[in-house]
Amino acid sequence: MSALNEIKERIGSVRSTLKITSAMKLVASSKLHKAEADIEAVRPYERTLEEILSVVESYRSDEEGYIKASDAPVAVVAFSSNSSLCGAFNSNVIHKVLDTCAECASVKVIPVGRKMAEAIRKTGLELENDDHGDIIGKPDYYKSRTLARELRKRFADGEFSKVLLVYNKYVSSSSQIPVVEQYLPYVTPTTASPERKPDSLSEDYIFEPNPVELAAQLVPYLLTMKFHAAVLDSAAAEHAARTIAMQTASENAERLLAELTLEYNKGRQEKITSEILDLESGEA
């Protein structure tokens, strides 16, 4: 009897867990749809800015275009989630950060997310105290802009020799890839030739204002957009990872529930059969 009661208690516990994982899956799936829409809305704008900037690349003279202090540490801006229950999402990007830091002579980690801050503190690497968890918890362009401006200023002041972004890039709901991107000094995907002259530019382009002013104004906008895109990518990847993790947990709970129910029914049947045999032997 005690064995059956124990199985019954386990069935109740698994059912409670199944309700929680199913609810978390629905919440994560809902957040994922919004995050997908946000990142897909940003990417075309980012690509267009990069295309325009690549045309006026030779006119750039901004502080983001060159290294101010080559002996300064490398800043690694590392993105993670603020909470767990999202599969290997955090462990994958943490390993990527550690591998990246191992390749640098001097490094300072700037965490964006509580899980990253907790993991880096255990390694002994130089770490900023603020985990910037509010940025990843509720992605907002103005929050991203504040940190992006701070990074640009510190780079321009020579505090960092380079700024790298390490985050999970959202590819699809089933694929999130840890990536490392150079944020500063910024280099356009297709760099224009330094010898390029205004009269050699394609006739398809009309510059207003002139290319020098255009380049100076575009770079800060693009850098802010790239940083915000990394935030949105990481957020979308987190929700996708959590959706899959909760789906897997729910499936495991359903399978365990079926096994426990079968075991309980077998035990109950054996108990009833034993009681019937006891009655028959007593009557005999």
From TrEMBL:
Cited SUPFAM superfamilies: ATP synthase (F1-ATPase), gamma subunit
Please provide the record's keywords in A-Z order. ATP synthesis, Cell membrane, CF(1), Hydrogen ion transport, Ion transport, Membrane, Transport
Per the record, its GO cellular-component terms are: plasma membrane; proton-transporting ATP synthase complex
Q: Name one GO molecular function term.
A: ATP binding
Domain of life of the organism in this record? Bacteria
Could you tell me the membrane topology recorded for this protein?
Answer: Peripheral membrane protein
- The answer to whether keyword DNA-binding applies is no
Q: Which GO terms describe its biological process?
A: proton motive force-driven plasma membrane ATP synthesis
Q: Where in the cell is it found?
A: Cell membrane; Membrane
The similarity comment for this entry is: Belongs to the ATPase gamma chain family.
Q: What does this protein do?
A: Produces ATP from ADP in the presence of a proton gradient across the membrane. The gamma chain is believed to be important in regulating ATPase activity and the flow of protons through the CF(0) complex.
Q: How does it assemble?
A: F-type ATPases have 2 components, CF(1) - the catalytic core - and CF(0) - the membrane proton channel. CF(1) has five subunits: alpha(3), beta(3), gamma(1), delta(1), epsilon(1). CF(0) has three main subunits: a, b and c.
Q: What is this protein called?
A: ATP synthase gamma chain
- Species of the source: Candidatus Cryptobacteroides avistercoris
Q: What is the lineage of its organism?
A: Bacteria, Pseudomonadati, Bacteroidota, Bacteroidia, Bacteroidales
GN (gene name)? atpG
